[in-house]
Fold this sequence. Notes:
The complex is a heterodimer of chains A (about 200) and B (about 475). Helix content of chain A is about 45%, strand content about 10%. Chain A is of the alpha+beta class and about 200 residues long. Chain A has 2 domains: about 70 residues, Arc Repressor Mutant, subunit A (Orthogonal Bundle); about 80 residues, Glutaredoxin (3-Layer(aba) Sandwich). Chain A has a 4-stranded mixed beta sheet, with helices on one face. The longest helix of chain A has 13 residues. Chain A is elongated and about 60 Å long. Chain B folds into 3 domains: about 220 residues, Rossmann fold (3-Layer(aba) Sandwich), CATH 3.40.50.11540; about 100 residues, Ubiquitin-like (UB roll) (Roll); about 110 residues, NADH-ubiquinone oxidoreductase 51kDa subunit, iron-sulphur binding domain (de novo design (two linked rop proteins)).
Amino acid sequence: MSRLSDHHVIVANDIIARCPRPKSALIPVLHLAQEQDGYVSTDAMEHIAELIGITPAEVYGTASFYEMFKFEPVGKYCINVCTNISCQLLGAWELLEHAEERLGIKSGSTTTDGMFTIEDVECIAACTEAPALQVNYRYRYRVTNEDFDALVDDLRNGALDDEIPPHGTLARVRQTTPDNWADTGRRAQEAVDAR
Amino acid sequence: MPADDPGAANGSDGGAVSGVPTGPKLITTRFDQADGYTYDGYVRSGGYEALRRALTAMTPDAVHDQVKTSEIQGRGGAGFPAGVKWGFLPDGVFPRYIVVNGDESEPGTYKDRMLMELDPHQLIEGVVLASYAVGAAQAFLYVRGEMALAQERIAQALNDAYANNLVGTNILGTDFSVDIHLSWGAGAYIVGEETALIESLEGERGMPRLKPPFFPAAKGLYLQPTIVNNVETLSNLPWIINHSGQDFYDLASPTSTGMRMFAVSGHVNAPGVFEVPNGTTTFRDLVEAPEYCGGVRNGRSVKAFIPGGASAIWFFPEHLDLPLDKATVDQAGSMLGSGAIVVMDDTTDMVAACWRVVRFFARESCGKCTPCREGTTWLERILKRMLDGNGRPEDLATLVDVCESISPGLAWPPKQTTICPLGPSAVSPIVSAVERFRHEFDHYVEHGRPIDGVERHAIHGTSGVAVHV
């Protein structure tokens, strides 16, 4: 809905400055937009295009390739149930079915109160801990139906607020550009580009 | 439901009771150390000693020589020797880049995420060592988008490493400088293919590049010479420098050197990730030994297993005694790939298993090459209608025909009509399952249901991704 906030512009410019070419910052900056609004809005994509110096169509062209970017609001909590082979073998589809019944929605949709979205997703690299799921990209392992119910209760009553930020926020620690950033790679690449 | 706390890998050193090959832990030593992921915890347990030694007492060529001597094979899937790969860089062309492939997404694979979450400094030390060896002034650490904790831990580790002069300008007072830039994806399996990863790093759609050049070492990131290495591969470098390439080489078999991480999942009693002697440990050791998985669940037997990730040709009980050796497994007609073993017991519905792996490739096809984009989609649809009880008598022949169009001859290693191996990877489960369990497919077509005695799954999802174009 909105352009990037002043704070996010500072973060975005810091990321852009670290890249040998500005467009390399595109995916991380799209994540910033999603962190701000919970999804990637058209206004944000236009703003990002200005910051990076490309067209809005190029921004959308890249963004629409990647499954994590949402172009409409989703739930505060996106619950991604892995159904790939290791999880399928140990009951992932049954877990997904339970999740759908518990929340009263089908996979791929959002509860009317805007709290939960369910997705059935591909392998999330927790194969030895099957069946596994992620809530806003935070893991839960060997999940039973009872575990799922408790998880939903905890999310609703705020018991997991510290651990699980709202959808859109990935890492809560950012790489900062330190004083001793060498910048030799970028300068060398700029010299190549200038030739 | 344990909280967001990755389980520790079990090493094989000490307490071996069943005669399995043993060896030291090289890269999982800090998995049991509560603060192993922090700067203090890493340094206290010997971290950054290899970097100090390399920068102050070794030339870049000497570091490269140790890696060559170790003959460490890339741990990402292709198994190409890292030292040889580095040697493909053209002389005198700068800037050149190191890119770390942390986009672990191959179904069954779980080890790079552990290494990034539990020992990020070990990876960073490996990246600086590699950059020093090949003369890179900038490195890119690309982490899979869905791995929030790994991104947090690596960001913190990089900030701490910079603050302690272990990355950045004039590292440890020497004249060597390198920057490491943390970047990450946004959900796309194909980005694990190295040229697609480079496209993604350039802010593009993650589609593989046309070959040649076959190696990014010639033209990679920004069309400059680039080395793309896997997380596990680079995490081994501190150990190799602290000891020697020869020590690493001597640990296991001459054709598969060093220790290696394997994730064993599926129908076993104790699934887990284990760092074991490469090349000498067998599949049976991993599945049955009490210090590893402790056998198949409920005392059942193995019906089939995937030896190296979803792209691999499946193996069967007669393959259990093969060693985890690249040459041996290649010769037996499959691959060790990314160290991902998925065990299926005798209650497994092979049509359902086959469909699930194929659905993965259909969903993850980037769409660049027609045989893959169209072919994987049709394979998935045909298998799904069989599962739904609507299979047609001609379906099996159609499946094989479509497979032929993606990978002519259905040989191993696969021939391909596509730019990258994703399309042919969707052929592997079909060739494996149809050849061995043809009667299960026939039964579905004839009766609309699986054979007796196999477990049915409540498969109902389509492509349940929220509000996506």
